[in-house]
Design brief:
By secondary structure, this protein is of the alpha+beta class. The chain contains six helices and 16 strands. The chain is elongated.
Length: about 270
């Protein structure tokens, strides 16, 4: 039975015309699925469905999503991230208890390592909704636990903001105004979880500027805002500027204070994946 599938040109190029045509004819496409974006049930025989191909170095996994959530696309991931995606898909196909909803105002934090002057530092990352004008933006707020310097810096000087402005981030003058988009950078989501912030390299490829030790859960409101704008706003401030704020209103106040002190940079990063 034919399916209401959408197979983008990039997905078709990866899987080949024969496999794409078989999917459209219903040979290998499931009737029902859990949307890889919103995680709710879908039916490819009754509603428009996107094919989403997760591609790692040696492995690829085909997943499905409501077309109203995301378009058909290829999502590059690491082998480790792809293994996590496979586990999520397998778990979604088996009965499972319904999880308790996440508190909508509770930020989410992760601690990846980053090079710092003299000793390892940690990048704290907080997810929250930030109002720019009348629009809620999905935001990531980055703050190291200590000074971050260039390789070879032995002075202890914090060069974190300098390093980011050299990459194209701009100082924030008013949090109410959304920052400009930064070409080449992106935020990687897979299976509804936050995986990495990607940046361009001199070789023309993308690499992880920040990567979660484990994929981070985000609230449905955050994911919805990111999906609606197809972008995430990244804010960054030096160590000790923002702090861990337990509520989004307190996070906003901390961002406004950092702006007044000239210690906040930002950019809009396109959303990659789901």
């Amino acid at each position: 039975m034919p399916r209401m599938l959408e197979v983008s040109d990039e997905v078709r190029a990866e899987i080949g015309d024969d496999e794409a045509d078989s999917l459209l004819a219903g040979a290998h496409a499931p009737d029902s699925y859990d949307c890889t974006s919103c995680r709710t049930p879908g039916d490819s025989s009754r509603e428009a469905t996107s094919t989403v191909l997760f591609v790692a170095d040696e492995t690829a996994v085909l997943a499905f999503a409501h077309s109203r959530c995301i378009p058909s696309q290829v999502v590059p991931v690491s082998e480790e991230q792809l293994a996590g995606a496979v586990r999520s898909i397998s778990q979604a196909q088996a009965p499972a208890p319904v999880p308790a909803p996440a508190a909508p105002a509770a930020p989410v934090a992760g601690q990846p390592s980053v090079s710092s002057t003299g000793q390892p530092a940690v990048l704290g990352i907080t997810c929250g909704l930030v109002l720019c004008g009348d629009t809620g933006h999905a935001a990531l707020v980055i703050e190291p636990t200590g000074p971050v310097g260039r390789p070879g810096n032995t002075t202890g000087e914090d060069e974190f903001l300098d390093l980011l402005t050299e990459q194209g981030f701009q100082f924030v003058e008013d949090v109410n105004k959304a920052p400009a988009q930064l070409p080449g950078w992106s935020v990687l989501m897979a299976m509804g979880q936050l995986h990495a912030i990607l940046h361009p390299t001199p070789t023309g490829t993308n690499a992880a500027w920040w990567q979660a030790h484990q994929p981070l859960q985000v609230t449905e409101a955050w994911r919805s805002a990111a999906r609606q704008l197809s972008a995430v706003t990244m804010y960054a401030a030096p160590a000790g500027t923002i702090g861990r704020q337990p509520r989004e209103d307190l996070l906003r106040q901390a961002l406004d204070r950092a702006t007044a002190r000239g210690l906040l940079v930002a950019a809009s990063l396109p959303l990659a994946g789901t």
